[in-house]
Amino acid sequence: SWIDINQILDLVKEIGYEVFLGCKALTSVTIPGSVEVFGAGSFALCLRLSTIRLLVKTTNFKMVHSVLFYKEITRLIFVTKKSGSNEIPRNVKTIDVDPFYSYKKL
Question: Whole-model pTM?
Answer without folding.
Answer: 0.79
